[in-house]
Amino acid sequence: MPRSVPLRRLLVALLLSCSVLVSTTACGSDDGNSSSSASSSASPTGTSSAEAQKFAKTRFVANAGLAAGATYQWIVKPYRAGKFKKGADGRTFALVKAGLAGGFAYNRLKAASENAKGDPLLSKAVAPLTAGIASLEGMATKLRKGEMGDGDIGAFESVINNIKDAGKSAGAEVEDKVPSASQLGG
């Protein structure tokens, strides 16, 4: 009887590792040429600069909107509700979600600043904000560990509001879009 427990664990571990292996190979390409052909077919060859600028603004609005939605929904709102205080109901879960949302928001803000480079007006509006975005890099870890304060939450809000204002001034108004929990996990 004691021998069946380790065997069962071994089988479960083997099945899990096989499923991970299968899922990672399913996402990759079989040969080296398919990725280059996919990238060459996916790149817009006949677009004018006006279309490229339009797409840059669209991607900027989408990424900044997701960052703003995640920040408000899973960082600012729970913080104001007192979910991050010691002894609060659901504190650990709220901190984990806030940490994921912080990392997600940082990633989307970096992507939005890259998207802004495709539009001259948007690029000028967003350029001064890159230092603020870079300052948020370690914030996800602080959120997850519960080591943040009013200033840290204010920094997130400030960067988000500045991005929204920069987008609005360049004709790309940003609205909050709350990402799903599965989008936060990547």
UniProtKB/TrEMBL annotation:
Signal peptide stretch: 1-28
Keywords, in A-Z order: Signal
Domain of life: Bacteria
Signal in keyword set: yes
Protein's name according to its UniProt entry: Lipoprotein
UniProt-annotated stretches for the region Disordered: 27-48, 167-186
Species of the source: Streptomyces poriferorum
